[in-house]
User: Which sequence fits this backbone?
């Protein structure tokens, strides 16, 4: 799922204190010759609030099992996000489908200035000071994936220095 991101570090869920957050539950309907069959689709974000986060989708005939399936799926898709203290290393834009998300690091004490699905993802990662703007589609599935797109593009100074084959001091002087 995260193959297109060079710096995406996949994480195993063992030994982590993961907290799950429900982003949304949708009731879906399938029309058959016998009438309407109702089901539920749930999207969940799990994170340890220290840079590890994952998202998952679960579908079932009842809400509880849809959420449980989503949590299991999210635990299979955990990635490590580079953080700078309680904020982000730099500004980043992400997109998925019709959703566009812009996340901007903020000064200490600012808080999480984000709404809906973006807030849920950023809180699960462990970011405490960030500004964000979500544009385009407000579909929670696409907004969560656009937020992940932005987070997975983040790189810290050590990674940039290693990729360029230069020292950490040269990164900031260049």
Assistant:
């Amino acid at each position: 799922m995260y193959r297109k991101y060079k710096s995406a570090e996949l994480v195993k869920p063992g030994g982590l204190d993961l907290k799950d957050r429900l982003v949304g539950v949708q009731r879906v309907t399938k029309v058959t010759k016998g009438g309407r069959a109702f089901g539920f689709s749930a999207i969940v974000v799990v994170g340890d609030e220290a840079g590890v986060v994952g998202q998952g989708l679960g579908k079932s005939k009842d809400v509880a099992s849809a959420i449980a399936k989503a949590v299991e799926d999210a635990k299979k898709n955990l990635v490590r996000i580079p953080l700078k203290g309680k904020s982000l290393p730099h500004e980043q834009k992400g997109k998925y489908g019709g959703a566009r998300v812009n996340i901007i690091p903020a000064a200490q004490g600012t808080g999480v200035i984000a709404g809906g699905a973006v807030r849920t993802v950023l809180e699960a990662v462990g970011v405490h000071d960030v500004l964000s703007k979500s544009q385009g589609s407000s579909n929670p599935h696409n907004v969560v994936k656009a937020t992940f797109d932005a987070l997975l593009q983040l790189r810290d100074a050590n990674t940039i220095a290693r990729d360029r084959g230069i020292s950490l001091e040269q990164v900031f002087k260049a």
Summary: The first strand starts at residue 9 and ends at 10. The chain is about 30% helix and 35% strand. The mean pLDDT is 90. Strands lie at 9-10, 19-32, 35-47, 52-60, 79-80, 92-96, 99-105, 112-113, 130-136.
